[in-house]
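Course assignment 3, question 2. Fill in each field.
Student: A.L.
Task: Predict the tertiary structure for the chain below.
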Amino acid sequence: MPKDGVYDVLFLCTRNSVRSIIAEAILNKLGQGKFKGYSAGTKPKGSVDPRALNLLRQMKHPVEGLRSKSIDEFSGPDAQAFDFIITLSDPTDGEPAPQLPGHPVTAQWTFPDPSRFETGEHNEAEIAAEFAETYKDINVLLSTFVSLPHASLDRLSLEDKVGEMTAQHASRKG
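Answer field:
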């Protein structure tokens, strides 16, 4: 159990403009004081995709304070320690999770970047459907994640449970 009773979860993806931002917003709503979500990117875009913000607003998530930021903000000797680090990148990104302070439980949840669908190749309805699908899939995983009996599970059990969730997610996507 974390010292303040709140589990800190960092969501990582390459650009920190869609997937990790969506995960941060969902967890902060679902977490209800038990979880606090953060997000960062290894190569941040510098802005949040407006389609992600619009979707989050439609789903009644607060979007104030959501911004694209670098993993560097969470590095260094005085950096915050996280209980969990969840990477949401495409397998084609090929980036390992960076080493951060503490000994967080880590997971790799593979999600294609919906912002890769560009206007011209796809119409707005197709692009919106990709964003909605990404939101739905992340929401399902995080709903399961927050329902785990974290306080009663030791670290190895938590790693096993998160690993099972990762495997189930991968098999549904494969």
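Instructor remarks: The chain is about 35% helix and 15% strand. Strands lie at 7-13, 35-41, 84-87, 105-108.
Grade: pending
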